[in-house]
Amino acid sequence: MRQIEHSKLLAVLQCRRNGGQTLEVTVRKAKQFNVIEQVMSVCPDLHQHYVQVCQNLGQPENPFIAHVLQEADKNDEIIWTKGVTLKIAGNSNLVPVQRVTDDSLQVLVSVLRTAAFVTGLDLRYNVLTDAGAKTMATFLQENSSLRYLNLMFNNIGKSGAELIAKALHGNETLLHMRMTGNKIGEEGGMFFASMLQINSTLEKLDLGDCDIGVQCLIATASALNLNKSVKAINLNRPLLFSQEEETTVHLALMLKNNSSLVELHLCKHEMKNFGVERLCEALYENSTLRYLDLACNKITSDGVKFLGKLLKWNQTLQILDLNANRIEDDGAIYLSQALALYNRTLQVLSVVSNNISGKGLVALSDAMRTNTELSCIYIWGNKFDEATCRAFSELIQMGRLKLNCTDVEPYEVDGHIYLAELSHGLQKHYYWTPTYWVVTEKDANASLAIAAVSEYL
């Protein structure tokens, strides 16, 4: 290996203190000077560092954390080119899991302070509390490499939410934050709404199943009127005690002004036809939203009439989720008419469990014959008759509808065609993602495969 200038070597050896983008530049320099082997030899070994920190702090080792760090140490090429996401999910079925506690998180964070190549941290389904949130908040204030943080379904409450949200005021690297399932409540959600007024880096925020309420939704909508960085937000299942749909009105007003949001989840908002009409009015003026999730609401065929009219004009929406509403045959026909004659942008439609019978389902299948852009459709949970089974069987046999783009598969018994359910859907891995392979298929999560908003989203 040829000699290089001392100053150049020193620049390379700063790897453990550099962030993601700087790290890539450093690696390119290292390759240029043929010293990548020297650089890797001086950067920390995650597992050995973890063992040492546990001894120094007098903390017992968490065998699952140790296993994940050992596996990460083996992926030298990934670490030095793309960075690595540590998947320490407490619901793993592959190896025995000792869930991460507040104390074990403190040890892990001490290790990661010198590991700039760790760009993602998945800590879902563990037992972290507000004390663990305090540790994570301090880490977020110091760290300059983390792009993805998943804390879904821990035991973080209002005070923990406050600490994390305030840490994000000054953080300039985190792109994707998942607080899903932590019962932070209305007050905790308000801290994240306030954070959105200050933070200009975060691109995706998930506050689904967090027990947020009316004031938090209104404050979040107000923040998104001005925020230019957030591209995807999940506000599923708030606790609402009003039938006035004022939150939907505020979200609709936000959509008129917002020019950056790509993905919006409003599942379980008790939304009725009035709310859908307000959203549709706003989307005539919006040219960026690609994924609209209205699943598990109270939308009927009258509400879908507004969506049908919108689809005749809208040239942006790619994914529409109407799962678990009650649009019935009339609603399905409104959609099919718009898709067959006008819209050539929508790629994915979910009408699962909408009390649709053969008339409406056949109309949707006919629309797919005309509309070649609509590639994924999910229909399970409706009323299948023989005409429906035959229509979708023909779509699949002729190759118009791929099996990985729908949730039904035809089979024949005694000369009659039936449809069996496939385990496919728009958000198949929203609550659970395999730790042993990367989810890329459209049937697994269409938001990632079709309307991904960035590398980490």
Automatic annotation (TrEMBL):
The source's superkingdom equals: Eukaryota
UniProt protein name: Leucine-rich repeat-containing protein 34
| Any single Pfam family the record assigns to this protein | LRR_6
Instruction: Enumerate the UniProt keywords alphabetically.
Output: Repeat
* Classification lineage: Eukaryota, Metazoa, Chordata, Craniata, Vertebrata
Q: Which SMART domains match?
A: LRR_RI
